[in-house]
Design goal:
The complex is a heterodimer of chains A (324) and B (345). Chain A is an alpha/beta fold and 324 residues long. Chain A has 13 helices and eight strands. In chain A, helix 1 packs parallel to helix 12, helix 2 packs parallel to helix 9 and helix 4 crosses helix 12. The longest helix of chain A is centred in the N-terminal third of the chain and has 24 residues. Chain A starts with 5 loop residues before the first helix and ends with a helix. With 345 residues, chain B is of the alpha/beta class. Chain B has two domains: 178 residues, Rossmann fold; 129 residues, Rossmann fold. In chain B, the strands form three sheets. A seven-stranded mixed beta sheet of chain B has the order 3-2-4-5-7-6-12, sandwiched between helices. Chain B has a five-stranded mixed beta sheet with strand order 9-11-10-13-14, sandwiched between helices. In chain B, helix 1 packs parallel to helix 9 and helix 4 runs parallel beside helix 6. Chain B is globular, with a radius of gyration of 20 Å. The mean pLDDT of chain B is 96. The chains are: A alpha/beta (324), B alpha/beta (345). Chains A and B meet through helix 5, helix 6 and helix 13 of A and helix 4, helix 6 and helix 7 of B.
Chain lengths: 324, 345
């Protein structure tokens, strides 16, 4: 299997850096009480989305769940419309109706994210069936978490994907927590999610985000497998979120997470690991300019909103039904 | 003569023919009985890509239908009993009903969901629920309940063409109801039908209750009672304008909500609407006949007094109009739609 090239790795790095800068800005600015909606930040988990975003093709679709900022952004989702959405403005990607948990950018084939755990899985499967029926190129990436495995609809959908051999890649980000509840309280000890899923008859992979380069290569392997075998695939990636389940703060003062685990993951931050790796490969690698200009760009978006934060009036009634 | 079940079949056939992206699926669609004969010959005509059997996965299959629908493949999904569709409430309520709204109008969900309600022959607690008012409660859904072959034909075609999710509910006892021929005149979703006119009373029905009152019409008219018969056809949107027009004339109301339990029912919604309307002044307090607030029992003996009988209807109309109707002796068995029916479902 060919390793992911330097230029691709660089793009993945930039993609994840963008997401981190945006998420950290949201975390900071959230306290101004202008973003008044439940917000699940992706800090710590950016690299998975960033890698899939770069290694997948434009014609591939993404569909996601409540913690979807990284997935939306990694697919190239419009940044200005995204920030406007969080601020409840009619210029947002969902006109301010959906908020942080309901993002969409059809131009970029980001088909939507929604809040109820596992609810978007079968919709992704339906999109894959529509691709198969119209013989359209590409696959559907369905992002899920470890708790999705506890919902019946996941297995219903998985069964159908295998039955019809649909162009689907499940990306399961296992951060060990469903809100505050650890995996050990929710699933039997010793279970390996990817092994369980594999036993249904789908090719399954595993990667650990702390082995960042290996993980990126595994994601690449999954994508090549799907492309060449024309079969669905599943990948479980072990990772960790830095902030609270929902909201802008750290919440480790609540002591629901093991200190060893917290320090392991912060010491093995994937964005820094990738950065170090790139510097090792190319001494001249420098992202400062990129970083500074992106921070400026983001700050400008927030500033503009604060200067003029009144949404245009829309008539909500017009959105309940589409006119026949 | 054309039966209700054949009109459904014709409407599906017409829709599949006129839109080559339309997909039909559900458990039993291609089975030997062809979904109570409503899907016969569709597989042969349109192939398995467009008319297919599914795993017994109501929730995922609804979501898969939504995924197809938002990517330009409108769908008809079907369930032989409504009760099984309850497994799919997450997909229906959280996704189908809200997709157009929550992404600011980006995509709508053109999906039609056919649900069959059972009655009699011991269908019991989990094969006979009619939950139209549940669905009507959700913004973003439309709820259609035809009563006769012609309106079933037209409304199914309109439901499939509609860019929004439509819950299309068929009562199992309607499948054998026939008309001389199908009137293909277009009926808009949201329009009721006025099936007879009279000044003494307004009788509002839908689905099976339309047939129940039609079967009694002769006897009632013979006794000198004439009534406006409104067949709702669409529960949501509801044709309140026509209801109001009739009530301004008759000032007397019977809602035959006889397949439904009473709490938060279609009937109670209509009564709520008229009681808040200052133009409407009724002679009597509005009346509504429903099932009791009890789940359907299975036993032949227990269901005898559970369903609304012809006698119950006649008695209520006599009370509301203060006129006598020659009481009929009802020899029909209460738990079958016709003497030939031997179930099992």
């Amino acid at each position: 299997m060919k390793k992911v090239s330097f230029s691709k790795l660089k793009k993945i790095y930039e993609n994840s850096l963008k997401i981190r800068i945006l998420e950290e800005t949201i975390s900071r600015e959230y306290k101004k009480n202008k973003m008044r909606c439940p917000t699940h930040l992706s800090i710590g988990q950016e690299i998975v989305a960033a890698s899939v975003g770069i290694l997948s093709k434009k014609e591939d679709y993404f569909i996601s769940y409540h913690r979807s900022h990284a997935h939306y952004l990694s697919k190239g989702g419009d940044i200005i419309k995204f920030i406007h959405e969080l601020h409840g403005l009619s210029t947002g990607c969902s006109k301010g109706i959906g908020g942080s948990m309901h993002l969409i950018d059809l131009k970029k084939n980001f088909y939507g994210s929604t809040a109820v755990v596992s609810s978007s899985i079968p919709i992704g499967v339906g999109l894959a069936l529509s691709k198969q029926l119209s013989k359209e190129a590409g696959v559907v990436f369905i992002f899920i978490g470890d708790a999705s495995i506890e919902e019946g609809v996941f297995f219903e959908a998985l069964n159908f994907v295998i039955l019809k051999n649909l162009p689907v890649i499940f990306v399961c980000e296992n951060n060990s927590f469903s809100v505050y509840t650890h995996l050990s309280k929710r699933q039997p000890r010793g279970r390996k999610i990817y092994k369980l899923v594999e036993s249904f008859g789908i090719k399954s992979f595993f990667a650990n985000q702390s082995e960042t380069i290996k993980m990126i290569n595994t994601i690449n392997k999954v994508i090549s497998f799907s492309k060449f075998s024309k079969k669905p695939a599943f990948i479980e990636i072990k990772n960790f979120r830095y902030l609270e389940h929902c909201g802008p703060n750290y919440d480790d003062n609540l002591n629901y997470r093991n200190n060893r685990e917290i320090s392991f993951w912060t010491k093995n931050d994937a964005v820094f690991i990738l950065e170090k790796y790139l510097v090792k490969l190319d001494k001249t690698f420098n992202h400062k300019e990129f970083k500074d200009s992106f921070i400026k760009f983001v700050n400008r978006i927030f500033r503009k909103i604060y200067m003029n934060n009144k949404p245009n009036k829309i008539n909500l009634k017009n959105f309940v039904y589409k006119k026949a | 003569m054309i039966k209700f079940k054949d009109s459904i079949n014709l409407a599906l056939d017409h829709s599949l023919r006129s839109n080559n992206r339309l997909i039909c699926f559900g458990l039993g669609v291609n089975d030997p009985s062809r979904f109570f004969e409503t899907t016969k010959k569709l597989l042969e005509k349109y192939g398995e890509n467009r008319v297919f059997e599914t795993p017994t996965s109501e929730n995922a299959m609804t979501g898969i239908g939504i995924g197809l629908a938002i990517n330009n493949y409108p769908c008809v999904m079907m369930h032989q009993r409504l009760d099984f569709f309850l497994l799919a409430m997450d997909q229906l309520v959280n996704n189908a009903a809200k997709w157009h709204f929550m992404y600011g109008g980006k995509k709508s969900v053109p999906i039609t969901i056919r649900l069959i309600i059972g009655k009699g022959w011991g269908q019991g607690p989990t094969h006979s629920q009619s939950l139209q008012s549940w669905f009507a409660h959700i913004p973003g859904l439309k709820v259609v309940m035809p009563s006769l072959p012609s309106n079933a034909y037209s409304l199914l075609i309109q439901s499939i063409k509609d860019p929004n999710p439509v819950i299309f509910i068929e009562h199992r006892w309607l499948h054998e109801i026939s008309e001389k021929k199908i009137n293909k005149k277009k009926i808009k979703i949201g329009d009721c039908q006025l099936l007879s006119k009279g000044k003494d009373l307004t009788v509002i029905t839908y689905s099976l209750s339309t047939i129940e009152i039609m079967n009694l019409k002769k006897i009632i008219n013979k006794s000198g009672i004439n009534f406006d018969h409104i067949d709702l056809l669409s529960i949501k949107p509801i044709d309140y304008k026509s209801i109001k027009k009739s009530l301004l004339k008759t000032k007397n109301l019977l809602i035959l909500d006889s397949i439904s339990n009473p709490i938060c029912s279609v009937g109670s919604e209509i009564i709520s609407l008229i009681s808040r309307d200052k133009d409407i002044k009724l002679k009597n307090t509005p009346s509504m006949l429903t099932l009791p607030d009890i789940s359907t029992p299975t036993s032949f003996y227990y269901t005898k007094n559970y369903y609304i009988s012809k006698k119950d209807i006649i008695r209520e109309i006599m009370r509301l109009t203060n006129k006598q109707i020659k009481i009929i002796i009802d020899r029909d068995l209460h738990d079958v739609p016709n003497p030939k029916f031997k179930g099992p479902f």
